[in-house]
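Subject: UDP-3-O-acylglucosamine N-acyltransferase

B.,
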Amino acid sequence: MTDTAGAGLPGDPRFFPRSGPFTLAEVAAAIDAAAPTGTPDRMFRGIAPLQSAGPDEISFLDNRKYLNLLAETRAGAVILLPELADRLGKQSLALPVAHPYLAWAKAGGLFHKLPPANPGIHPTAIIDPAARVDAAAEIGPYAVIGPRVEIGPRSIIGPHCVITAGVIIGADCRIAGHVSIGFAIIGDRVTLHPGVRVGQDGFGFAQSPTGFVSVSQLGRVLIHHDVDIGANTTIDRGSAQDTIIGAGTRIDNQVQVGHNVQLGRCCIIVAQVGISGSTIIEDFVVAAGQAAFSGHLHIGKGARIGPQAGVMSNLDAGVEVLGSPAQPSKAFFREVAMIRRFARRDRMRHSETKPDQPAGD
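Prediction pasted inline below.
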C-alpha cells in the first residue's frame, strides 16, 4: 500500500487537493491576523498539528491542555491567543488572534478549498424535460431529477440522488450520493451528506376502532442558507405547516426531525438527537448527542441540552439542562452527589452490620 499523505501533512492529496504555497502575509490576511514584521514573504505549504508540523507548516493552539507543546513544536508559525505568544520557541512565529479555532478553520479553507462543480449532466442521469438545471450545475451518475425541479448554479447533485417534483435547490449546494429530496425548498450553500432524507411523510395518524388512519402531510421542508446536514439524517415534511431549518444550522449524522419542527438560526444538533413534531427551537440552541424532545415544545434561544437528556417541557432562553426528565444542570449534579452519598452511607451501614465470617480450617 502506498501512503500518499506525505511528510506528516494532514489531508491526503488523493482525497483533499491542496492549494498554495502561500506567503505568511497571505495566510495572515486570510485569518485576520497581523503578520510578524520582517517575514511577510516566508512561504508555507500547509497546516498540521503542533506535534507533527514542520518549518513550512502552520499550526494552532486553542486548548491550554497542550501549552507544553508550544516550546517543542517545529511549526513555522502558530495561530494562538496574543497572551500565549511568549510561550513559543524561537523556531516558530506567532500569529496572534482573538479566536484561534476560527482562524484555524479559515487557514484550512485556504489550503484545502472545496472542489468546484464540474458543470454538466452525466449520461446516466434521468432529467425530466420540465426540470430547470442551471448550466453551471453538476448532475452525477444515475441521479433522477423530477418535473419542475429547479437546481441553481454551481450546485452538485451526487450519484443516485432522487429529487422529486417541484423541489427547488439554490446556488452552490452540495448534495452527496444517495440523498432523496421531496416537497422541499433549499437555499444557497446547503450541504446534505450521504443518505440524507428530506421531505418524507411525517409520523401522523389518527386511531379508529379498526386501526390507524394516516393524516395527510401537506406541508413542506424549508432549509435556509448555509445549513449542513449529516449522513442518514431524516427531516419529515410538515403536516399542516412547514418544517423549517434555520440559516447556518449544523445537524450531525443520524438525527430525526419530525413534522412541523422549526429549528432556528445557527443551532447545533449532535448525532442521534430526536425532535418530535411541532417543537419550536429558537436560535443558537445546542442539543448534545442522543437528546430527545417530546412534541409541541418551545425551546428558548441559546438553551443547551446535555447528552441523552429527555426534554419533556418548555425551556427558557439560555438554560442548561441534563438528565431524563431534563432539569437544570446544577440540580442534576446536586441529585447525583446526593445519590452517591446515600450509596456510600448504605455500603458503610451494610459493612457494619454484616456478621463475622467463620474462620476456615
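The first helix runs from residue 24 to 30.

T.
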